[in-house]
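=== RUN LOG ===
request id: a7f3
mode: sequence -> structure
chains: 1
length: 376
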Amino acid sequence: MLTPDSRARDFPSLEGKAYLNTAAESIPPLCVLEALADYWSHKIQGMRGRDQHFARVEECREVASRFIGLQTNEVSFCSCSSEAYNLLASALDLKENDEVVVTDIDFPAGATPWLTARPKPRVSVWKIRDGVLEVLDLLPLLTQRTRLVQLSLISFYNGYRIPWHNVVDKIRRMAPQALIAVDVTQALGRVTLDCADADVIISSTHKWSLGIHGGCIVGIPARNAARLTTHAGGWFHIENAFGEDRFERAVIKTGAASFSVGMPSFAPIYALNASLRYLEDVGVKFISQHADPLVAKADAGLRKLGLQPMVKLNQTRYPSGIIAFKHPETAKLHAALEEANVHVMHHAGRIRVAIHGYNTEEDVDRLLSTLAECVQ
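=== RESULT ===
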């Protein structure tokens, strides 16, 4: 991943392209394909394959817990972050007088369950200023009635990484009844996480963690298990699903285990187990050491071209892999980049560049040289 040889070996589809769109979709390493082949070989054994399926779930739980800083029994899996947040809404069972704080640079999965809930809690929005969430702007939103503060460690929108410990300290002091949920989808596998003290940790699996669609990690510390247990129906998360009293009561497993309401989605779990172990072998610290200078180079190059990134690198000591900028002619810029085989995200008048460990200095050079031809 960090050398020309390992890149060519593990990511052959990157040959000839500058893929700078991991914040939307990752390019999984070949070991993920091998893991999916393992899943298939076990699946075609029918019921006999289930022993391998469930063993792989436990293997994945083990490595996922290390990545997010929790114990194995504090981690579970569901199908996507949207499902995870809706199950969290079920667990919280908020009332009309309860308050929720979200940010305006959070992904919809973490923000909309509180807007569609019935009854609907009071929702306050912590808004960015010049691309940054200023902690002073959060303080007036926190009250004794705040039940949840929903954050993204790194924003999908502009790449801003919150100063975690400072924010958490303020929430704990100003809103002691509030739970803190954090989406680490745009961080897991790219930066070393520092948010194990959150009350809920959620991550999709098809971005920086190099897995595939259909998976989501849910981490809930044991201290919160009792009060963060979903009320959803199902069977896999129910202790007495096939007991004699199953039509009289449903005994739900507590905490993270309650978020796996049905049969595990085994294929994404096989893939995630392989991709996380691959990232662990490489080392997230070394990925950051390789990729952060490329982010800095891209940031400086964009500014030189008059394309101002939405977050200034000197505004945060917490770098991420994402740079985003707006321009009146983003459609034209995106078309030129596509023509040059440079892959970025173009959406709603902004271009988002995402730099992972498999990216190179040549990728950044191609990005900047292509943009230079369009804006100069």
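=== NOTES ===
The mean pLDDT is 96.
The chain has twelve helices and twelve strands.
=== END ===
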